[in-house]
Design brief:
Blueprint lengths: L4 H12 L3 E4 L3 H6 L6 H15 L5 E4 L1 H5 L2 H17 L3 E8 L3 H11 L10 E4 L9 H9 L3 E7 L6 H19 L8 E5 L17 E3 L9 H7 L7 E5 L1 H4 L5 H16 L1 H5 L2
Parallel strand pairs: 1-2, 1-8, 2-3, 3-4, 4-5, 5-6, 6-7, 7-8
Helix pairs in contact: 3-5, 6-7, 9-11
């Protein structure tokens, strides 16, 4: 029997510390690296990030849109990055934010979660705004493939607040129901922004991981994450992208800095010191 996503994630967090590193090869970052905004520049950027962080980050999160904008050539670079990360033993969280119904959602799940797909990741991000029930097929696929999903609940961008306040509780409740009885985590995580001023819905019954973007360039710190998510800090996965990607010469050092700072605030040992 294959190891579940929750078990693999727990093992990576324990071995590497609680940090997710994004691969966001935007035109601005390619330019900052002195690379052409082209498929070849995209490949050099991605390969450098993979080679630098695969062994030191628990999870790596490629943002699919920056690859998709180059069509088949960009998707080929993404496939290679995913394959190299998984070969290195790094968990891959593919940031696609897909959401649809019935057969279309099943097709998305086949593309990103089916073990036989060239884009198969350990987990993906999903949008619940066609109803949490619309994600049933993707969650079933995740379970069948020992993979996971992270469902948008309260994200870090300020324009999301009005809508997401209305539905975040339903998303968290749906995720908790899908995770019931699983150990150490169920397959359904949620996305909660590090820039929130408060967590308005209890997460102690979630029984799943919590992806927390917004650390670094968006202004949140590991200390902010620890304060916001104190009751569930063992399940938190802070995510950082631009703050570590801005300078290739400082990439590894910045990743190690954030990894160690997150560990200092979020591990059980850190909780005991407070």
């Amino acid at each position: 029997m294959n190891e579940s996503f929750g078990a693999r994630l727990r093992a990576r967090l324990d071995a590497c510390g609680p940090l997710c590193v994004g691969i966001d090869p935007s035109p601005a970052l390619l330019d900052a690296w002195g690379l052409d905004d082209s498929p070849s520049g995209l490949e050099r950027f991605s390969r450098t990030v993979v080679e630098t962080v695969a062994e030191v980050a628990a999870v790596v999160k490629p943002q699919s849109a920056f690859f998709e904008r180059w069509g088949s050539r960009g998707v080929a670079v993404l496939e290679r990055a995913i394959a190299d990360l998984r070969e290195a033993g790094t968990l891959v969280l593919l940031d696609v934010k897909r959401g649809d119904i019935a057969s279309t959602m099943t097709a998305y799940a086949e593309a990103y979660l089916d073990r036989g797909s060239p884009l198969a990741a350990d987990a993906v991000t999903l949008s619940p705004y066609l109803g949490f029930g619309s994600l049933t097929g993707a969650i079933a696929s995740a379970v069948a493939n020992d993979a996971g999903v992270f469902v948008l609940a309260r994200t870090s961008n300020p324009e999301s607040a009005e809508l997401q306040r209305l539905v975040a509780g339903q998303v968290i409740a749906g995720a908790a129901a899908a995770n019931a009885g699983a150990a150490p985590f169920g397959p359904v995580g949620v996305v909660m922004g590090a820039t929130l001023t408060e967590v308005e819905h209890p997460l102690t019954e979630l029984n799943g991981p919590i992806l927390v973007p917004g650390v670094g360039a968006q202004g949140a710190s590991p200390a902010d994450v620890a304060r916001l998510f104190a009751p569930v800090r063992h399940a938190v996965l802070p995510s950082v992208s631009r703050a570590v990607l801005a300078d290739p010469k400082r990439l590894r050092g910045r990743v190690l800095h954030y990894r160690d700072e997150c560990a200092a605030h979020l591990t059980p040992e850190a909780a005991g010191r407070r």
